[in-house]
Amino acid sequence: MAEDTYRTIVGLSEGIYTEKRSKFIAIALPVCTLEEIKVHLDRYQREYYDARHICYAYMLGHERKDFRANDNGEPSGTAGKPILGQINSNELTDILIIVVRYFGGIKLGTSGLIVAYRAAAAEAIVTATIIEKTVDDDITLMFEYPFMNDVMRIVKEEEPEVLNQSYDIDCCMTLRIRRSLMPRLRARLEKVETVRFL
Per residue of the chain (198 residues), what is the pLDDT tens digit? Predict the structure, then answer.
């Protein structure tokens, strides 16, 4: 994978794993913020209020440095870590995987739990639609109206996304482009008279 791309999932996906009458329901969700994660966790804790454990792991950000694993009362390292392990082995980010466990009356032991949580998380990932996204950077520039054509030609050729624009005596534009393409876009814009970056 290029340094300015990352893998994530498109929408909600689910997986189910059963072991010795215990049922593990895995839900994978695309997320971007801790607030989103909290909302999802609250929702699924209410929805599965009768479950024995609701364990989860998440990974945020294209650098994959913001993550957490939670065992929710299962023996330490038997639930959250195996879920996070599946996120890592699939090189995913901006993802939350919740695994709900209904106890079937037979203890699985620590190794059984690890296998079950890992398998449930893997099932949710297998059914998910995985996409590769680019890491994008934004740039805001001001320029005088007579230089509009010069700027617009560069925008047309380099194809950044135009986030907003206003045209007055001074024009202002905010552009978004893949990180690896930003230096070239910026260098070309710098050559246009009156362009200054905010």
Answer: 567 899 999 999 999 999 999 999 999 999 999 999 999 999 999 999 999 999 999 999 999 999 999 999 999 999 999 999 999 999 999 999 999 999 988 899 999 999 999 999 999 999 999 999 999 999 999 999 899 999 999 999 999 999 999 988 789 999 999 999 999 999 999 999 889 998
- Strand 136-144 vs strand 170-178: parallel, antiparallel, or unpaired? antiparallel
| Pairing of β 161-167 and β 170-178 | antiparallel
* pTM for this entry: 0.84
Short-list 5, 9, 4, CA closest to 92:
9
C-alpha 39/C-alpha 192 separation (Å) is: 46
Angle at 123 between CA 118 and CA 129, to 5 degrees: 125
CA-CA distance, 58 to 67, in Å (whole number)? 5
Residues 82 and 118: beta-carbon distance below 8 Å: yes
Q: Say how far apart CA 174 and CA 170 lie, in whole Å.
A: 14
- Looking from the CA of 66 toward its CB, the CA atoms found within 13 Å total 13
Indicate the SS3 state at residue 44. Answer: helix
Cα–Cα–Cα angle for 125, 126, 129, nearest 5°?
A: 75
Residues in the chain: 198
